[in-house]
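[#protein-structures] MJ: dropping Flagellar motor switch protein FliN here for a structure pass
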Amino acid sequence: MNEIVVAPIQLEEAAYEPTGGDPLIRRNLAMLGHVNVRLNVVLGAAELNVEKLFGLTKGDTVALDTDLDAPVTLQLDGKPIARGQLIAAGDCFGLKITEIL
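AK: finished. structure tokens for Flagellar motor switch protein FliN:
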């Protein structure tokens, strides 16, 4: 049986020092300003069993787990980014932002 012996080696630790050059990504939004994103406002949630879900009919009410005056959550790609209060914006709902997360 041949035995292979491996000698340990010492690796030199490389120190990271910022060079002060241009960043990889610039914070200039001019390149992204035309990109549209979709925001969602989450009012609350409800939990019910499948029997009740399938039994829902027009005019039924589903109570949410949120108080009427509680802030709602603004989400971008499913992630919360802000909170605020619902307001009337003409004939639509709007969101007055009260907190950036």
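MJ: nice. The two ends are 64 Å apart (CA to CA).
AK: one more thing. Residues 58 and 83 are 31 Å apart (CA to CA).
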